[in-house]
Write a structure and sequence with these properties.
By secondary structure, the chain is of the alpha+beta class. It is built from six helices and nine strands. Bound molecules: ligand HQG.
């Protein structure tokens, strides 16, 4: 399948499986799952037909592994990033010492005052790699990266979760655990 078709399907799925399932007449179950057959039928009715093979390819090849099938392959969900109410039923796991959050330079003052907030999503998203955080920040403007003292947060009892695609999730990061990374331009 052509890369552009893959991206187009991924965006369509992200929108409906994270934010607006009702636009397709779908309801996600508590874990965020929806039956594959219902999804494909609803997409076709919506004028955006996706074949079963294309769906398989998107789940397998998506650059960030944004979607998963359940063990029966009968259901699909987005791995993270929801704004609708879902409980991904992730278990808390011990984080690495440092995690990273990329954002826009224009958000720095506010973040240093209020800490990182989850905004419209369910969690604050953190990365284990600086380069990934930088890319996330670039989506918002001139990028900056915060270093999160995950070890100190863990020691104080903040739970950390990791989505099936390796994104680290927390409820919030108070300012005392944040430090701006210097010399980001050297990171590629
Ligand atoms: C910012 C993508 C001002 C926060 C990525 C971010 C990620 C504050 C924005 C995933 C703030 C929310 C999530 C405060 C937080 N004051 N700004 N106190 N607290 N913010 O898109 O982390 O491609 O909801 O820094 O790869 O950018 O969709 O979060 O800039 O993993 O799969 O508020 O989305 O994945 O923006 O991105 P977002 P995010 P996908």
């Amino acid at each position: 399948m052509h890369q552009s078709r893959l991206v187009k399907i991924s965006k369509y799925l992200s929108y409906h499986l994270r934010h607006q399932p009702e636009k397709l007449g779908l309801t996600l179950d508590v874990g965020g799952w929806v039956p594959v057959e219902m999804l494909l039928a609803a997409a076709a009715k919506d004028g955006f037909p996706i074949s079963a093979d294309e769906l398989q390819a998107v789940v397998a090849k998506n650059d960030k592994k944004r979607f998963s099938f359940d063990e029966t392959k009968g259901k699909i969900r987005a791995n993270q990033g929801h704004s609708v109410a879902v409980d991904l039923q992730l278990a808390a796991v011990k984080p690495p010492e440092k995690l990273y959050h990329g954002t826009a330079a224009s958000a720095v003052d506010s973040i240093l005052k209020q800490g990182l907030q989850k905004m419209s999503r369910h969690h604050v998203h953190l990365s284990a790699e600086i380069a990934i955080a930088k890319k996330v920040g670039e989506r918002h403007g001139r990028p900056v990266v915060f270093i999160v003292d995950a070890a100190a947060m863990d020691a104080q009892g903040y739970p950390f979760y990791r989505s099936d695609n390796g994104v680290w999730l927390v409820d919030k990061v108070p300012p005392e655990f944040l430090q701006l990374l210097q010399q980001l331009q050297q990171i590629t």
